[in-house]
Specification:
seven-stranded mixed β-sheet, 24 helices, 54% helix, transmembrane, translocase, ion transport, metal-binding
Length: 624
């Protein structure tokens, strides 16, 4: 934590809260002017200068540097005009309320970004490095891949890595939004910014600080803050044109009402000044950004990183979502599905021999057999003369018998109609098969399948309830694709698709349904992610998938997809409410001004009050 001097702290405090402080001082001076009428001018003048400082500077800077008219210019003109015609009190109130609404808008923006900026504070600056000479504290930035660090109970894990020793519960809320700590043991992956709850851990560094998942979150969030939604972009372009129109009407109102309606010159000027106030689009301009930033902030807290307001707004308009299979709908890790043995073979003995041999192999299917046997508490036997035959299988002696595991032709040259029929049937279901046997005979077969994610079926159901079509696009064969699509209850699937074909299929889906999202995790998904209206990447996916996607699910949690869509729909509803309210208030106040019903103080209250309402309404998106 940096050490600041008292002067630096005071400067930082005033930079953050100066606008609100100025507004409050302005309000106090105005109140004093009303309480002491004889000295009202003495109080109103500094109230004008102090209250209007920030907004005047903002408006003039925009005008001089960017040659752009803004609502601040309208307010400055209205306040100065009020003084010219002798309405000191009304002008002072205008400045005060405008300054106060500006300060509260700034507060709202800061509030909506609080969840985002707090991410940086969660990243440790130092780590305990374990070396041959003992432990020492080093900057996290100095850690390199392969270094060993120690993480004590209650400390934040400084880098992405793998547990070498120890077991603990780890609070991953900063990454995924999941409030329940997750049990971790040797071999499990841990992430920077998460909290080691109750056990000492020794962790091997897997990524340098700049490449950690947590750092990636921070970078994506920073980029998202600068991306604006289409509606926001339109409003900002519209603002300059609208202000010009108001100024033209203002000039016309300085003369025409006197000749057309017979108003005296003082009333004509007064109504022209009121028009500057009531026609200012402050509420309209503030209708979008607070809601958008609040939605991005609350999404990040739940482990959904949206790379900009434009993507968040577009989520609500999706008509279909396409999913990759391996690593997206499934865990990308094969598990044992079936164990089928011949009549005279005991399944336990069969698994014991298979697991004893396969525990010496690094093949993913071998690991699945070992895990399956461990779950059944099957012990491991000594293995002798292990031989590996690439592309065919492995052989080894177990209890004096030479076992073979692999392809059917490798295990034996003999035909077995029972296992042949079973294998053909199971392959149609998309399962991988290992044959096993000894003495030139089949002893049994073990089948594997890529296990569907626990939340996949529930996610698909919720997406359908939102009115979207669900499709799987995979490079896998029809059998495997059909099994997963049926289990997840997708509308339909497309199998045997190459990366470039996935891109074409996304375009076809867009033509058939409308805006479409693609969800994937691999390099082969990147073209489709880029082509889709919204690309959604799994947080554990490849770097190119994460860079290409518009939305990242940081904890690989598919349930966050319908949550993100629902959040987008809510945000768009709030924005529409704000726009309708702000336009309605402007029209009512303009009409009331022409009818000479509303005066300057009431117009200020009505106009700035609507601005505060839309800001507060936008902040509702902070609620999860």
């Amino acid at each position: 934590m940096p050490n600041y001097t008292k002067t630096e702290k005071d400067t930082a405090f005033f930079a953050k809260h100066g606008e609100l402080i100025a507004a409050v001082i302005s309000g106090i001076l105005i109140a004093a002017g009303f309480l002491i009428p004889s000295l009202s001018t003495f109080f109103f003048i500094p109230a004008f200068l102090i209250g209007g400082l920030y907004k005047a500077k903002e408006g003039l800077t925009e005008l001089v540097q960017n040659k752009k008219l803004s609502v601040e210019i309208l307010m400055i003109m209205a306040a100065v005009g009020s003084v010219i015609i002798g309405f000191w009190a009304e002008g002072a109130i205008l400045i005060f309320i405008f300054a106060l609404s500006g300060a509260l808008e700034t507060y709202a923006m800061n509030k909506s970004q609080k969840e985002l900026s707090s991410l940086v504070k969660l990243q440790p600056n130092v780590a305990v490095l374990v070396t041959d000479d003992g432990e020492r504290i080093v900057p996290v930035a100095d850690l390199r891949i392969g270094d060993i660090i120690s993480v004590r109970p209650g400390e934040r894990i400084p880098v992405d890595g793998m547990i070498e020793e120890g077991h603990s519960s780890v609070d991953e809320a900063a990454i995924s939004g999941e409030s329940v700590p997750i049990g971790k043991q040797r071999g499990d992956t841990v992430f920077a910014g998460t909290v080691n709850v109750n056990g000492a851990l020794t962790v091997k560094v897997a990524k340098e600080q700049k490449d950690t998942l947590f750092q990636r979150i921070i970078e994506l969030v920073e980029a998202a803050k600068n991306e604006k939604s289409p509606t926001q972009q339109f409003i900002e372009k519209f603002e300059g044109t609208y202000v010009r129109i108001v100024l033209i009407v203002f000039v016309l109102m300085l003369f025409l009402p006197h000749y057309i309606f017979g108003w005296d010159w003082r009333e004509t000027l007064y109504r022209a000044l009121v028009l500057l106030v009531v026609a200012s689009p402050c509420a309209l301009v503030a209708s979008i950004m607070p809601a958008t930033l609040s939605a991005i902030a609350s999404s990040a807290k739940k482990g959904i990183l949206v790379k900009g307001g434009n993507h968040l707004e577009m989520l609500a308009g999706l008509k279909a979502i396409a999913f990759d299979k391996t690593g997206t709908l499934t865990k990308g890790k094969h598990e044992v599905a079936d164990v089928i043995v011949r009549e005279d073979m005991d399944e336990g003995h069969f698994l014991q021999a298979a697991a004893s041999i396969e525990r010496l192999s690094t093949h993913p299917l071998a690991s699945a057999i070992v895990r399956y046997s461990e779950n059944k508490n099957i012990s491991i036997l000594p293995v002798e003369n292990l031989d590996d035959f690439p592309g065919q299988g492995v052989s080894a002696f177990v209890n004096g018998k030479k076992w073979k595991l692999g392809k059917a032709s490798f295990v034996t040259g003999n035909q077995d109609s029972f296992f042949a029929e079973k294998a053909a049937q199971l392959e149609k279901e998309g399962k991988s098969i290992i044959f096993a046997g000894y003495d030139d005979q089949f002893a049994g077969i073990i089948t594997f399948k890529d296990v569907i994610r626990d939340e996949a079926k529930e996610t698909v159901k919720k997406i359908k309830e939102l009115g979207l079509h669900t499709i799987m696009i995979t490079g896998d064969g029809v059998g495997a694709a059909s099994a997963i699509a049926k289990e997840a209850e997708l509308d339909f699937f497309l199998a045997n698709t190459l990366p470039e074909e996935k891109l074409v299929e996304i375009k076809k889906l867009r033509d058939a349904y409308g805006p479409v999202a693609m969800t994937g995790d691999g390099i082969n998904d990147a073209p489709a992610l880029a082509t889709a209206d919204i690309g959604i990447a799994m947080g554990g996916g490849t770097d190119i998938a994460l860079e290409t996607a518009d939305v990242v699910l940081m904890k690989n949690d598919l349930k966050r997809i319908p949550e993100a869509i629902a959040r987008s729909q809510k945000m768009n509803r709030i924005i529409k409410q704000n726009i309708v309210l702000s336009i309605a208030v402007i029209l009512v106040l303009i009409a009331s001004n022409f009818l000479q019903i509303v005066n300057l103080p009431l117009s200020v209250i009505g106009h700035e009050g609507s601005t505060l309402i839309v800001i507060l309404n936008g902040l509702r998106m902070l609620k999860n």
